[in-house]
Amino acid sequence: MRPEEHENKENDFTDFLAAATAATVILMGVFVIVTIVQLVM
Fold first, then answer.
1. Where does the source fall among the domains of life (predicted)?
2. With the C-alpha atoms ordered 16, 21, 22, 28, is the resulting torsion angle positive or negative?
């Protein structure tokens, strides 16, 4: 990462939002899979 990019706080915040969104989507996916497995069992 270049120093100019590292100084850009908005860019860091956007990366954080993207990571948080991805984590939320993954957690929701896991939750849905677990729920379906529970219903099938």
1. Bacteria
2. positive
pTM, entire model: 0.58
| Number of structural domains the chain divides into | 1
**Distance (Å, rounded) from C-alpha 40 to C-alpha 37?**
5
Torsion of CA 19, 24, 25, 28, to 10 degrees: 160
3-state secondary structure 5-34: HHCCHHHHHHHHHHHHHHHHHHHHHHHHHH
- H/E element, 39: helix 9-40
> pLDDT tens for residues 21-35?
999 999 999 999 999
